[in-house]
Amino acid sequence: MRDHDADEASEDEERSVLTARLMLRRPRTDDAAMLAAMIDNPRIASHLVAGPHPFMRAGAGIVAHIAVSRRTGMVIGAGCHRPSATRPGGHDLSFFVAEEHWGQGFGTEIAHAAVDHAFEAGAVERLWCSVRVTNGPARRVAAKCGFQFRDTGMVRSLAARGAVPVEHFVLERGIWQSLKSWGATAAPDTRRTSNPDPGRASDDDDTSHAA
Fold first, then answer.
1. Under CATH, to which class is 3-186 assigned?
2. For residue 130, what pLDDT is reported?
């Protein structure tokens, strides 16, 4: 490994977010092709609310963290939060899970980690999550993270080549803090994990979601 690669890997470790099964780290240049292949999968792209399609390698810059298995090193999916273009003062949450890893609870695990990172690492006061009305699993993930339904609307989807109906959900910092406090009281184990049994499959993310 070249020196600058070693430095980059070390910096990734310092900035990573750990869950029971995953490490969320910044994407690297050599992750771009794999991310493109995942997002350009029609079964994933059809559920994306926004984002480039086809993804192309240049799209890697929009992904804040990729989720890597701590056991195998495989890329499981990705998640990010970024300033909202339509909600002043808010951030949009996005995440997706590679198709081969659907149905194992990774969607909730990635989303929980991204939510925690948004509120802990920055001055985010409000997170928004937009879900296509046909994406029930993503709606359940949002609910598990504490998001509350706000309204409905239409957004342009590049994959669908037109406008699609969506539901908008919001999570305020105060609500997140209350949920974290309750969780700390109810569960002494403070590891950031969405699934108390990492080996148990979940039906909450057998598809993908992105804001």
1. alpha beta
2. 92
